[in-house]
Amino acid sequence: MTQSVAATEVSSAEPRLGRPGPSHRLIKLLGYWCLTALAVSAARIWLPQSADLVVSLWWTGGGLLIGAALLDLLTGRRVKGLEGARKLPGNLALGVRNSARLKLRNSGPRALKLWVCDSVPQQLASTGLPRQAKLEPDQEVAIEYSLVPHRRGSAEFGRIEVLADSPWGLWQTQMWLGDKQTVKVYPNFLGISSLQALSTEQTLRQLGLHQQQRRGEGMDFRQLREYRQGDSQRQVDWRASSRLRKLISREYQDERDQEIIYMLDCGRRMRAKDGELSHFDHALNGLLLSAYVAIKQGDAVGLQAFAAARDSSGGQLPPVKGESAINLLLNNVYDLHSGTGSADYSGAAQQLLATHKRRALVILITNLRDEDSAELLTAVRLLTRNHLVMVASLRETAVDRVAQKPIGNFSEAVDSAAAQDFLRRRARLLQQLQACNVSVVDSRPELLHQALVEAYWRLKRSGKI
């Protein structure tokens, strides 16, 4: 997957002006003028001989303030020559800090004092706004601020919002500059980007896995080479050895062109959080990284999501291979969200069997609990008729913490007993899955990517796929 680092800059559209409103300066001056009415009242009591003069001065000051405000309004209500544009990254990754830039240019006749803000979507957290800027005629300024996405999907930016002060700063005119923009927020694909230039062995090492050396145990022929100590006798190519008058071995590689289908649970249980990210987002990260490793091995990857939110799109992808496969997968899941309903394992299994007949490795990613046992075991038995099945379950680390916490009172003892019972029932379900000839991955959410790659590689090296 190639991360798009090219930024998009929006050409400035026609500015839209709002109605001028009083500035904080004008409101303060009017407040001070009203407060001096107390001094006028006191003067009429304590200095009756000067009362008329004080009242006249008070009214004169008020008249001058109102006149100045009206004149400032007439001369500053229209802001001419201000242009704006926004520059964003080509795409964003969930939870990763990015920078956005606002560019403002003043081609008008007077200097402008501005308060600048941006219409940032709710799914993005921003820091560094609002900002103050002062632009002389024919001057340009760039304002940079930070964005951190906390929800995937399409993020729609509105226009740039600006408050422009009048010449004396008594009024402010609201303006909207630039165009609306939409940018896609993907799962955290930066881990994939960092692995692109690495070989398979380097990729596994980067993920903290050790590739065990193995010679000649794969199914696909790779090349002929000289015999090495440790090669099995069945690897020897006797015809080539006779021709070249030295021992020649056949070297094989792991079988390619296999199909990996991810069944992704999007039910309400995947909304659980053990940190900043939900289990569902951790599942997507693990899915993408393990899919990338499989694609590099020459395998095809596909996706079937079930129990997704109604506003989600995508979630269904037939197995594809090649360099473009990870991009297709990313674009298929970036706006996929977990729903509020329960996962229907049997229905999802029947749907996969109806649409995919060729034998594949089916990886079911979910959050298992004991109450799922009957339905899940039924679904697994259906799938194992035609496919090799792996079930990857995310552990709820909050339950582990409760079970391991020292007991100090009766309430903590009850919580610990409940957590221990929950974990015991869950472990029994995992054992039942293993008894059905299913590979089982039980991992903390943040380590799921590593566990999935390790399990995939173990099956690959064993020749099962």
UniProtKB/TrEMBL annotation:
Taxonomy, superkingdom: Bacteria
Pfam families per the UniProt record, alphabetical: DUF58
Residue intervals passing through the bilayer: 29-47, 53-74
Keywords: Membrane, Transmembrane, Transmembrane helix
Residues in DUF58 domain copies: 224-392
Listed PANTHER family: BLL2464 PROTEIN, SLR2013 PROTEIN
Protein name listed in UniProt: DUF58 domain-containing protein
Species: Microbulbifer echini
